[in-house]
Write a structure and sequence with these properties.
The chain has about 90 residues and is mainly alpha-helical. It has five helices and no strands.
């Protein structure tokens, strides 16, 4: 586990679906390299996602770690504890 990975029960599908819902877009519109700031994610939505994931059992989700690299692939790697090679396939 890398320095920024947290122990969660979240799946790639759940993380991508939650991000997409926060942005108001379909999950299949997100790619591994999607910059979430460019996609319209603001700090309020990020805080809402962090709280949602904490409520789902990801107590160690860290706002600064996610905010420092707001890219889908990075978030999946941090939250799911495994390298994300294909976000699109997570939705299949």
């Amino acid at each position: 586990m890398s320095e920024h990975q947290v122990s969660t029960g979240l799946s790639k599908v759940q993380v991508v679906a939650d991000i997409a819902a926060a942005l108001g877009i379909p999950p299949e519109d997100l790619a591994e390299d999607t910059d979430l700031i460019d996609a319209g994610l603001d700090s309020i939505r990020l805080m809402s996602l962090v709280e949602k994931w904490r409520s789902a059992g990801a107590a160690d989700v860290d706002f600064p770690v996610l905010a420092s690299e707001p890219v889908v692939g990075h978030w999946v790697e941090v939250l799911v504890n495994e390298p994300n090679t294909e976000v699109g396939k997570a939705m299949s």
